[in-house]
Structures are given as structure tokens and as C-alpha cells.
Amino acid sequence: MIRISLFLLIMTVLISCSPKYKIEKIYHPPTDRICLEKCQADYQKCQNSCQKNYTDCLEKSIKRAEMIHSQLKKEYQIKMENYYKKYELYLQKSEDYRKQLKTLKDNYRFYERLCSQYKDKESCQKKEKVKKYIKQLELNRPVPPEKPAEVEFSSVLKNERKACSCDCGCKEIFDACYQSCGGKVEIKRICVEHCD
Predict the structure, then answer these.
(1) Cα–Cα distances in angstroms (integers) from residue 31 to residues 20, 103, 180, 183, in the given order
(2) What backbone phi and psi angles, to 5 degrees, belong to 25?
(3) What spatial distance separates the first Cα and last Cα of the chain, rounded to whole Å?
């Protein structure tokens, strides 16, 4: 146990002291300026289009969320009606259960008294029988129905907005264009913490 703890401590220290890196792109410009300007213009168009699509998607997500939420509210009403019916039944069963348990416990006390006072064999047997019935009954106690959860509009909207993305791969398209113009994209790992 001590060896494992010592090993974990050493690993934690080594990991926390190990260097941390970030990935950076270094752009070496091409000689063809016109080609580069076209890449930059295409990149800007891609970004503008992407931003517009993202904004449109967010706006449409509100309408979609309203429709979904409206349908979920209807389903929730039906579930609540069923829940109230089941709950009413549960209350009736609970009352029957309470009465039955009380009767069995009263019988148990009665037979227990006869058994202990008079050593009546039949009463002692009945006492044990009633005790078993009580245990069985307690194991089958009525369980209340689960109340359905109401779905909030904010959670539906949040879920719908997950479908919207503001990443259209414009950077990757630009990098490919940049390299086709004769430029070079160098990817470097740069140490930012605990560097030697």
C-alpha cells in the first residue's frame, strides 16, 4: 500500500512538473501576392457566410424549440393526468395496506399474549404465521408513482442550439489555398510552462 502511494506521489509530481505545450502555426508567405490576396478574400467570404449561417441557425433554433416545447407540454399534460390517476390508486392501496398491517399487528399481539401466558401451542403457531404475513406485507408496501418531470424551454433551446456550428473549416481551406500559392504553413509545438 505504501509503495503504491509513493508511486502515485512520484507520478503526480512528474506530471505536474512536465512541460506543457501549445500548437502554433507559423506562416511563411508566398511570393505570389495576388494569389495570397485571393486566399484572404475567400477566407473572409467563408467566415462571413459561416457567421451568417450560424446566426440564421440560432434564430431558427428558437422557432424549432418553441414547436418542440409546445409538443412536450402536451405530452406532459397527458403524463400528469396518468400520474394523478396512478397516485389516486396508490393512496387507496396505501390505506388498504395500513388497515391490513394494523389488523395483522393486532392479531400478532393477541397470539403473542396467548402464547406467552398460556403456552398454547396453536396460538404460538398462529403468532409465527402472522409474523410471516406481516413480513410479506411489509415487503410489498405500495410504491408511489414517479411524478413526470416538466421540460423547461431553456433546456430545449439549448439542445436545439447544439446543432448550430460556427466552425465551417474556413481556416483549413485558407491553409490549403495558402500552400497552393507557394506559401508554407509550419506547425510547431511551443513550450509554455515548465520548459527546460
Answers:
(1) 35, 98, 11, 8
(2) -100, 130
(3) 33
Using N-to-C axis directions, what is the helix angle for 33-118 and 170-180, rounded to 10°?
A: 150
**Cβ neighbours of 169 (radius 10 Å):** 12
Average pLDDT over residues 184-189: 84
Distance CA 165, CA 143 (A): 45
Residue recorded with cell 473572409? 44
Spell 57-87 as b/e; 16+ CB within 10 A means b.
beeebeebbeebbeebeeebeeeeeebeeee
Q: Map grid coordinates 393512496 to a residue.
A: 91
Question: What is the reported pTM?
Answer: 0.59
Q: Which of 180, 185, 173 is nearest to 36 (CA)?
A: 180
Asked whether 1 and 167 are in contact (CB, 8 A), the reply is: no
**pLDDT, tens digit, 9 for 90 and up, residues 154-173:** 999 999 999 998 888 999 99
Give the whole-angstrom CA distance, residue 83 versus residue 104. 31
